[in-house]
Amino acid sequence: MMSKDEPDRMSLRRLNLNMLYTLDAILNTSSLTEAAQLTHVSQPAISVALKKLKGQLNDDLIIYLNGKRVLTPLAQGLRARVRKLLIEVDETLNFQVTFDPQTSRKTFRLAASESLATMLLGRVVPKMLSEARDISVVVSTLNRTTHADLFETGVDLIISPEALVDHKFPSTELMKDRLSCMVWDEHPSIKSTISMEQYLDARHAAVSETSNFNVVPQEIFSKMRVSATTGRYGTLAELIIGTDLVATGSSWVLQYYASRFPVKVLKLPFATMETPIYVQWPSHLTNDPAHMWLMRYLNDFAEPHRIAHATFMKK
To answer: Where is each HTH lysR-type domain found (predicted)?
Structure first.
């Protein structure tokens, strides 16, 4: 087994761009078959490429321990560095002085909490795709990954609550959110408003991976009865349809569900704090024309909803 921890510098310089993409695929997939599919080559070709990489880097890169595929220390160290390098290469080769949504080709990669990602997929992305036919959009969830890690993997924009903002990166406020509750349109006892007594007597639906109830006052939360839990925010509306359940969550997202399902959104019977929602991006994109178009698009989308949200909260 090769044991050198550091590859020869001249060997590194002999790696061409195609080999770097191959190395990235091998280091970030679970098998050579998957790496071959990702790079659009045959499995024998990816095996030959791996053999060349092993020789040039003087390292096995992949070993098997008790039948389990494991990256060597060198491979683990190269993984993030190679990915970051390729992102910079892609950005350099795809740099545009101007961006025309009608003709430019671009993939936007966005990340948000599962609830906000649901709203983006439902409202923002379809309109973007209809107006810019040659762009593509990838929306992923945060999954407790740091902003720095997301940006290193190619994410262009992160939408998150103020509490998750990473001050090392540029940011701007997109909107303000607040908790509301949602019930089935034909709820047997809750009509246009909900009283504190009704809220505390109700059976509640919750999303296991969200922390919405963490901002409900403790004296209220301790008296709530959660009767149904779902693992995804996207299934919350369907969970309460046909039941007497009450769901508490993002006012913005619940209002989105109310536009699509037979549910209604009500103000909570207790005071709640507003939560600013921020957009963040890597510093090098600040003056990028495509990024500036995307930011204008998001702000144009958010403005009428900010007004609608403010009107709802005054009712």
So the answer is: 15-72
Whose tokens are 């923002």? That residue is 124
At 118, list the tokens: 């649901």
CB 159 within 8 A of CB 171: no
For strands 225-230 and 106-112, give the pairing.
unpaired
Q: What is the pTM of this model?
A: 0.65
Burial category of 38 from C-beta neighbours within 10 Å (exposed 0-12, middle 13-18, buried 19 and up)? middle
Q: Which domains are seen in the chain, by residue range?
A: 9-84 (1.10.10.10), 106-172+279-314 (3.40.190.10), 179-266 (3.40.190.10)
Per-residue pLDDT of the chain (315 residues; tens, 9 = 90+): 444 444 444 455 556 777 888 899 999 888 999 988 888 888 888 899 899 899 888 889 999 888 888 999 998 888 888 888 887 777 666 665 678 888 888 899 999 987 788 777 777 888 888 888 889 988 888 877 889 888 888 899 999 888 889 999 999 998 888 889 999 999 999 999 999 999 999 999 988 754 444 567 788 888 899 999 887 887 889 999 999 999 998 888 888 899 889 999 999 999 888 888 999 999 888 888 899 999 988 888 787 666 766 666 666
Q: Where are the beta strands (DSSP E) in the chain?
A: 62-65, 68-71, 106-112, 135-141, 157-161, 171-177, 179-184, 203-207, 225-230, 246-250, 263-266, 275-280
